[in-house]
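Open question from group meeting: does this chain pack into something compact, or does most of it stay loose? Before anyone orders reagents, we agreed to write out a predicted structure and look at it together. Recording both the input and the output here so the notebook holds the full record.
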Amino acid sequence: MAYKSILTFVASSSELSATLPAAMEIAARNEAHLTATLLGVDMTPAGGFYMGASPIMLQETLERAQQEAEALEAQARRMLDGNVLRWGIDSAVAQFGGLPSLVGLRARFSDLVVQTGPYAGGAGATQEAVIEAALFEGQAPVLVLPQGKLVKDFGKSVMIAWNQSNEALSAVRRALPLLQAADSVQVVVVDPPVHSPERSDPGGMLTQMLARHGVRAEVSVLAKTLPRVSDVLMRHMEDIDASVLVMGAYGHSRLREAILGGATRNVLENAKRAVFLAH
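Structure tokens returned:
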């Protein structure tokens, strides 16, 4: 089992410069095929044109999106030409509301989607939509790189956020190639419930499953000493110098997390290191 089909979506020149080199490095490490999908996105909201507006206005916005996609494609080809990777380029134009179906269709046939952090300074509105679409519509794991680059020791030390949820288990299963290549894996359980089925041995069954896949993992049970579980996870990640956090995404609905906050959104907003997500 390995990541042999890697995909990245890019909707701006700055995002391309940040994301594509990292995606190329990950593809090289896995001897995988890399596809860069360059997006021209019409940001006009649904119903954004008033009654009776000329169809030419809509045509102009779509043509502008097409030009942006073509410019990104030319830039991506310059970055990829001459590289020994197996790679391909795909460009597409869509209105913002149509991104989920477009991204989902392409992501569902990929082993891993690589994206930059969606809430960093200068991040575009499309980045959050792409990550969510890849996770939900595409059912693909997403590696989010907050700084848009890989650290030197990427993948050597990996931390798993474990809360016994279906989302967390899905993330672990999708991350197996990453875990098998790691030198150190730590399963972190924050404030486990007293009446949990795993109360006598938090994380024990997970480490047993991982061991059968050749992954030696240690378990750390942490108290919730900070207001949010996500804060505890990120602080511990810094303490053990882990380069990747593996976690389930959106255990609550996306709407609830957008309005009230949640572990996924908080981690994506504040993480300084790579986050591997699956739903």
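Observations to bring back to the group:
The beta strands are 5-10, 33-42, 86-95, 112-116, 142-145, 157-161, 184-190, 217-222, 244-248, 274-278.
The chain is about 40% helix and 25% strand.
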